[in-house]
Structure prediction request, 261 residues.
Amino acid sequence: SNDFAELMNRPHVFLVPDLEAFLNKDCALNHPFEEYKGKDLDDSQKEGCLIRRTDEFIKNKAWGATLMEVGFPLGRNQFSLEMHLRLWDKLTEAGIFLTGYGSSDNHSNQSGWYSGNNFANWLGVEEDKAEPIGEASFVEAMQKGRIYMGNPVALKGAVCFETEDGLPMGSGIQIDSVEQWQTIHFSCDQAKTGWRFRMIYNGEPFSEETVYSENYRFTDKVKPQKGINYVRAELYDENNICIMLTNPIYIVKKDVVTNRR
Prediction:
């Protein structure tokens, strides 16, 4: 049927007996450009595909998903990392806040460990939890966006991305007006001098500098520009390959509705 054809065209949708109940649970959108796999597309056609994919995801409210696969430093299915990030950012701007994560997507242990699309994910779990850290804690971290993704070979120390009040990545700050400046802190231990740091604000590079210390620290202030604002961080190695992406910190006016409230 047409309904079945439309369903199968969604990125990695699984056939389950009760689809509506499944989509009301936490699920991930993997390979968001899988539809175009094997097709020979020029740059203009890829731009058109990105626009169509963005419109489709927004129209369907990302089918109720919680997460989306974005961390492919070398791209996937001929769509670059930049295009994955643009899709992610556009969904954020539409009030659809999805936790981004990275993946090697290698279905064996023979490749992808030391280079290429080898991203792993670090989950932020609250230290003062009374119960043992387990599956429930990891699921909560994914739900709340307390994840950064990156190259596990390059990243040796902890990464922190938070507000001045200690709210971590994935957090939302409610504001009354766009006059409320926000201070953002980033740190990366055991970094390598010569790497490049970028802070992305509302989809555009906002601050950028060369990493100058093994215990790298960066602080800047952002001024809200509209109802939904977001800031995230990126690290690139000396070959200009992305080695780390944080999830965003959201700065949202109180009267704006998103999928997280």
